[in-house]
Write a structure and sequence with these properties.
Shape: globular
Distance between the termini: 33 Å
Order of helices and strands: HHHHHHHHHHHHH
Strand content: under 5%
Number of strands: 0
Radius of gyration: 18 Å
Structural class: mainly alpha
Number of domains: 1
Number of helices: 13
Largest sheet: none
Helix content: 55-70%
Low-confidence stretches: none
Length: 273
């Protein structure tokens, strides 16, 4: 592991991102825009290491993963709305267990909408999703985490194990934001953030394997995750019970998808969809 390309990828990703995020350590107040440059660390690291080992041809092969979109529509639906559906499932369980109804007015306010505009929020969901996907993590990170790291690790171990390893580093990589710019990670405490990111990385591994290595679908899933947890869910997770129910729901999803036979064997083939 210490001499593997993936270890080099992790180290270079941390070095690039944490250096680009360094202004955050000295600013009393910072906008989430300060998080954007460092978000490109995983992709920059992947491109640099691929170019060094495989030249321009390797870089072209890596970049083509972003254009790999000929997969079942079901995977698109899962990536785009699956995480929001999971959030509403958590809210439903929370209410069944006697929890207080979430303050949807606060959520709407965060979207720039007035109270009672829930239908407008639903109609505008594609806009919020599009912005959350293009600005920040999804398009900046996934070529690295999935296109480079997941692809290489799953040649050595079952994809779900690779996902867990990547998820650990993925969570720790966010530490500067968790400490200096918590709004960029949905104000989620690290004790909850770590299991969420490790479980979600297994979900990403499942989608990556099932779509035959599509970074495009990983980008869309990342956009869905950011929209659900970091945009819609930020104010909702102030309720500890709801937060931990949501953590449990994500863990359950990761377990179910992790039982997929394709995720338990090396060198998983292309999507069946």
């Amino acid at each position: 592991m210490l001499k593997s390309p993936v270890f080099s990828f992790f180290m270079l990703t941390f070095a690039l991102s944490w250096l680009l995020w360094s202004p955050l350590y000295f600013l009393a107040e910072a906008s989430v825009l300060w998080a954007l440059p460092g978000a490109w660390g995983p992709t920059l690291a992947a491109l640099i290491l691929t170019w060094r080992s495989s030249g321009k041809a390797g870089v072209r092969t890596l970049l083509r993963k972003v254009l790999k979109g000929r997969v079942s529509v079901a995977y698109y639906v899962f990536a785009i709305v699956g995480m929001v559906a999971l959030l509403f499932l958590s809210v439903g369980i929370h209410k069944l267990l006697g929890g207080a109804s979430p303050d949807w007015g606060t959520v709407l306010e965060g979207m720039g909408l007035a109270p009672g505009k829930e239908l407008v929020a639903v109609v505008l969901y594609p806009v919020f999703f599009f912005v959350n996907t293009l600005v920040g993590g999804p398009i900046a990170e996934e070529l690295g985490w999935r296109g480079f790291a997941q692809e290489r690790l799953q040649q050595q171990m079952p994809p779900w194990v690779a996902g867990l390893i990547i998820g650990f580093f993925w969570a720790v990589w966010h530490l500067p934001l968790l400490l200096s710019l918590p709004q960029a990670t949905g104000h989620m405490p690290f004790v909850a953030y770590l299991p969420v990111m490790m479980a979600m990385s297994v979900v990403f591994a499942w989608l990556y394997v099932r779509t035959g290595g599509s970074v495009l679908l990983a980008i869309l899933l990342h956009g869905g995750l950011n929209t659900a947890n970091g945009f819609i869910g930020t104010s909702l997770f102030a309720d500890p019970q709801l937060l931990w129910i949501h953590v449990g729901v994500i863990l359950a999803l990761a377990y179910l998808l992790g039982c997929d036979t394709k995720l338990r064997s090396r060198n998983s083939g292309d999507s069946e969809g």
